[in-house]
Amino acid sequence: QVQLVESGGGLVQPGGSLRLSCAASGIIFSMYDMGWYRQAPGKQRELVASISSGGSTNYADSVKGRFTISRDNAKNTMILQMNSLKPEDTASYYCYAVHGLLKGGLNWGQGTQVTVSS
Questions:
Q1: In the chain, which residues have pLDDT < 50?
Q2: 6 bridge partner residues
Q3: How far apart are CA 69 and CA 49, in angstroms?
Q4: Residue 1's pLDDT is what?
Q5: Which of 55, 83, 52, 51 lies closest to 67 in space, CA to CA?
Q6: What is the pLDDT of residue 91?
Q7: CA distance 18 to 79
Q8: How far, in Å, are 31, 35, 75, 107 from residue 103 at the CA level?
Q9: Are 109 and 5 spatial neighbours (Cβ–Cβ below 8 Å)?
Q10: Radius of gyration of the chain (CA)
Q11: Would you state the pLDDT for residue 17?
Q12: Which of 29, 44, 48, 116 could anchor a disulfide with 85, C-beta 3.0 to 4.6 Å?
């Protein structure tokens, strides 16, 4: 029932920007905490950014000041605006959703690839 669909990944040069979107269905979107993980081959999965059902945000130190997470509850969509991209940002990016009060297991999207290269 729960579906999370990412879009917006692609190839970009260092210093460029990308806008990732996560469209959710099958949940009461406004009640869920949302966020983005990323994983590169041979590396640990990293929590990039999160936004609570109340709108509070958190960022990994590696992206702080460059990425912005936001949500539009009316459109059941979460956004990750990625600026000043670096080669080390190259990874598969995964959207997740978890109920803000009940918690429980995370719901995941299929992922979208971001490649930063000159």
A1: none
A2: 22
A3: 7
A4: 85
A5: 83
A6: 98
A7: 10
A8: 10, 14, 22, 11
A9: yes
A10: 14
A11: 98
A12: 116
